[in-house]
Automatic annotation (TrEMBL):
It comes from Micromonospora orduensis. InterPro entries: FAD/NAD-bd_sf, FAD/NAD-binding_dom, SQRD. It holds the Pfam family Pyr_redox_2. This is NAD(P)/FAD-dependent oxidoreductase. SUPFAM superfamilies: FAD/NAD(P)-binding domain. Residues 3-121 form the FAD/NAD(P)-binding domain. Coiled coil: none annotated. GO terms for molecular function: oxidoreductase activity. It comes from the Bacteria.
Length: 410
């Protein structure tokens, strides 16, 4: 029996085992997937929980439900990979041998990496995050109780998963306070380590002007050194006081990646950005957020890259060259408040451009432009996630980015 072992049954790991179980002979291949938790969280839903749009129950389901017959789901925490011995050790002492390994344990927020965030006495009192389920639920209460003062939305450093999520939170907060008739009592500030609202110039300009229109102050190039009680302090000694801080802590890969000597300084696995094969080992791949590819850390990237990976993997295990090349394709809806959203579609080489998606002229989604249809697309994504994406069903969207419908000149 040949053994494929997948670490992490989140977005990428679940898609992979579903797709490969259909394609790999059951007599020849054993597939095992490991995860530390038996609940699968729909992370894009965390954005909406603080505004009361989704209840917690709508975004959590039992993990086993998405694992197909013929795949063993092992509940356990990965402690270490021994790449020399082709073996994975779990924290409880179990050992899982493999012939091929897929690392898909994602990234997570690490508030302990910024002095004063977790240990300054304000965590979950006046400092919150929405990048975890518990954080989003706790923040919902804090938002409900907030009736005036300085709300600061803040990113510690890039890369983070879903790099537009903090912007979306800010737009939604603006709309939420307007709907509650108290926007004039809230000072909203967006604090980012980037030189602008987003990583890519055209989108950054568009999103930056949306912050201006909403009278949201922006503090750029802000590299936080520490949090002093209720003040953010940067390395260049700027100070930003807050009453309520919504922060996105440093995002890092799982610690076992570092312990196994497989990661960079953020515990991300260095891979070839087109095949996702680890640079150091010919039988280890890293998919989803866990790798160091210079693409957005997003479910859409996990989806498009898994499509390319699946075909490549089938060739690789036959000792044939991998002919598929992942282009970094990402697309993300950006909620902008009042029932509207934008859509951005881009890859390693092409930044988000205006236009229509997926069909030129027809859309129905508009690129870099607010519309209600985009908002409904964002909400419909939850259904697609549970019913199409995770089970690895075909979705009529090409894995590679297309220039059709895009207008570089606008
Ligand atoms: C607030 C927020 C909003 C987002 N919005 C969007 C969006 O609108 N669109 C979009 O495309 N993406 C969005 N994303 C990003 C998207 O959720 C992630 O990019 C995607 O889930 C990555 O998939 P993954 O499989 O790499 O990691 P995950 O889905 O995070 O899965 C990793 C799995 O590994 C497991 N694991 C980790 N460490 C260990 C260990 N040591 N042992 C065992 N198991 C382990 C975890 O339990 C988890 O199940 C958002 C994310 C957040 C936080």
């Amino acid at each position: 029996m040949r053994r494929l072992l997948v670490l992490g049954a989140g977005t990428a790991g679940t898609m992979v085992v579903n797709k490969l179980r259909r394609r790999l002979d059951k007599e020849e291949w054993q597939i095992t997937v490991v995860d530390q938790s038996d609940r699968h969280f729909y992370q894009p839903g965390y954005l909406f929980v603080p505004f009361g749009v989704y209840s917690a129950e709508e975004i959590v389901k039992p993990r086993q439900r998405f694992i197909p017959d013929g795949v063993d789901l092992v509940r356990g925490e990965v402690d270490r990979v021994a790449p020399g011995g082709n073996e994975v050790l779990l924290a409880d002492g179990r050992r899982l041998p493999y012939d091929y390994l897929v690392i898909a344990t994602g990234v997570g927020p690490q508030p302990d990496q910024t002095p004063g965030l977790l240990d300054g006495g304000q965590w979950r009192k006046s400092i919150f995050d929405f990048y975890t389920f518990d954080g989003a639920v706790a923040l919902a209460k804090a938002m409900e109780g907030f009736d005036n003062g300085r709300l600061v939305v803040h990113i510690v450093d890039m890369p983070i998963k879903c790099p537009v999520a903090p912007l979306e939170f800010t737009f939604l907060a603006d709309a939420y306070f307007r709907q509650r008739g108290m926007r004039d009592r809230v000072e909203l500030t967006y604090v980012t380590p980037l030189p602008g609202a987003f990583t890519k110039p055209i989108a950054s300009k568009r999103l930056g002007s949306m912050l201006d229109e909403r009278k949201i102050a922006v503090e750029t190039d802000f590299l936080v050194e520490r949090v002093d009680d209720k003040t953010l302090v940067s390395y260049d000694e700027r100070e930003i006081p807050f009453d309520l801080l919504v922060t996105v802590p440093l995002n890092m890969g799982a610690e076992y990646v570092a312990r196994s000597g497989l990661g960079n300084e953020l515990n991300l696995v260095p891979v070839d950005k087109h095949t996702l094969l680890a640079k150091a080992y010919p039988n280890i791949f890293a998919l989803g957020d866990a790798s160091d590819i210079p693409a957005s850390k997003a479910g859409s990237v996990a989806h498009f890259s898994v499509e390319v990976f699946t075909e490549n993997f089938l060739r690789h295990v036959r000792d044939e060259p991998m002919t598929g090349s992942f282009d970094g394709h990402a697309n993300c809806f950006v909620e902008s408040g009042d029932g509207k959203a934008l859509l951005i579609d881009f890859n390693y080489d092409t930044e988000p451009l205006p236009g229509r998606y997926p069909l030129p002229g027809v859309g129905p989604f508009s690129l870099l432009k607010e519309s209600e249809v985009n908002h409904w697309g964002k909400l419909a994504f939850r259904w697609m996630y549970w019913n199409l994406l995770l089970p690895g069903r075909p979705i009529p969207l090409p894995a590679h980015m297309s220039m059709a419908g895009k207008h570089p000149e606008e």
